[in-house]
Automatic annotation (TrEMBL):
PROSITE patterns in the cross-refs: HIT_2
Pfam hit, one: HIT
UniProt GO MF annotations: catalytic activity
Protein name (database record): HIT family protein
Organism of this sequence: Montanilutibacter psychrotolerans
Domain of life: Bacteria
Motif (Histidine triad motif): 104-108
InterPro entries reported for this sequence: HIT-like, HIT-like_sf
Amino acid sequence: MSKWNSPTEWQRLCDGSGCPICARGQPLNNIAQLDSSWLTMSEAAPMPGYVCLVSRVHAVVLHDLTSSQAESFMRDAHKVSSALSAVTGAVKLNYEIHGNTLPHLHMHYFPRYVGDPFEGHAIEPARVSQRVYSAGQFSKLRDRLLLELGASAVRR
Ligand SMILES: [Zn+2]
């Protein structure tokens, strides 16, 4: 059952008063802070190089942002796209914005590879049950991405 079935809970998630990202002050697995967003990355990923760009302003949909905020968010998205493509060597990137369970604006990046389990189709993260990184691969890729972005790792 989705949170949409609880109007009060859904409203609190949408207006930010019950948003776990806003309550925490940042998303989980935050690796970098960009102009208008945080970048998250975790070893628990559906595809090597999977990252998520999270707006630093609470918004449910793009048009909740001002034009200037949206432009800044998309500049961050553009920058991450370029850096992620360079460090992963992916054939292409898939981007997804949903917010169905956590309505705080975030954009998923799925690097796609020749021979990946979903070649020719959209990624289905629920169908990924095994680890996608070999030992040491995650931290190496994360560090290369941060270097490519010119970003410093977020201290935790
Ligand atoms: Zn929020």
